[in-house]
């Protein structure tokens, strides 16, 4: 009975790998960077970027669906420090994206709205400036990219204070405000995303993986 089960698991595993044109295999047997038979990225991916012209290298980890980034993506330094959390929809930035220093202090929050790239026009809900807490639907011509929509906040990593904010409506800068400058330094609590990351990865080694391919 046990041998039959092992054979079944082996056949199931091979058939799962066979649907991918290429992939990377982690030390735990999980597949990463999967490409299907028509060259579309699927599932969990890890992207690596080397240092170029003085810009530091970094890595991204997240999920692809039909060759488009989807959901939460995390950005790391090449040393493994969490420095950004981005959200994607239809392969475009969407919602609140946060960026941190190497020490884990919040330095920037961006607000994005993704427009469905499969449509020539899309609709968005925006607040009516003449009526408090009232929203209206607007039709937007799709230019094939995410648009700035909402409040962008710039932080002083040493104090945690907002030093500048920008309000965007459908990509247009509505207003910009600067916070009072202070020289006082206070202990800054790390964002919960950074704390959770450090707890989960405390003492862990970085995942190793190798290439795999079923041929093309």
Distance between the termini: 35 Å
The total of beta strands comes to 16
Low-confidence stretches: 3-15
User: Strand count, sense and closure of the main sheet?
Assistant: 14 strands, antiparallel
Mean pLDDT: 82
Q: Please indicate the percent range of residues in DSSP E strands (runs of 2 or more).
A: over 45%
Structural class: mainly beta
Radius of gyration: 22 Å
Write a compact overview of the structure shown.
The chain is 12% helix and 49% strand.
Descriptive account of the structure:
The chain is mostly beta strands. Helix content is 12%, strand content 49%. It has helices spanning 2-18, 192-201; strands at 20-26, 31-36, 41-49, 58-65, 68-77, 82-89, 92-93, 95-100, 106-113, 121-127, 135-141, 147-148, 150-155, 162-169, 172-178, 209-213. The strands form two sheets. Strands 1, 2, 3, 4, 5, 6, 7, 8, 9, 12, 13, 14, 15 and 16 form a 14-stranded antiparallel beta sheet that branches. A two-stranded antiparallel sheet has the order 10-11. A hairpin with a 5-residue loop joins strand 8 (95-100) and strand 9. The chain is flat. The two termini are 35 Å apart. The model is unreliable at 3-15 (pLDDT under 50).
